Amino acid sequence: MLAIKKARKLIEANPTDIASKTLADLVLALESETPFLLADIYELDYKRFEIALEILAEWRMDRYYAKKLRLVDVSTMAKSIATADAPVPSQAAPAPVETKKDI
Predict the structure, then answer these.
(1) CA 38 from centroid of its chain's CA atoms
(2) What is the C-alpha to C-alpha distance for residues 13 and 10, in angstroms, rounded to an integer?
(3) Are 10 and 49 in contact (CB under 8 A)?
(4) Radius of gyration for the chain, computed over Cα atoms and rounded to the nearest angstrom
(5) Range of 31's domain?
(6) What is the pLDDT of residues 44-54, one digit of tens each?
């Protein structure tokens, strides 16, 4: 989350700067899963280029963890459904008592 914080501070400090606009566009493209022109990153100075690469790495890692959490949620839900559908072992019914009529 360090790169995301760096980018936020950079954008807040000078929102009209071309580097700020490029980083903001990158973040918005990642969030909305829309295309982003990689050539725009190459036009950044090295420091901001590094921030852009760090954002990509952090975003990828966060996405991996988000998918992992969804997998855990789905797995938990599937297990609870399977448990709910499983037959519940019933208590053994007491043996019928014989009466004089049965004999």
Answers:
(1) 24
(2) 5
(3) no
(4) 30
(5) 2-79
(6) 999 999 999 99
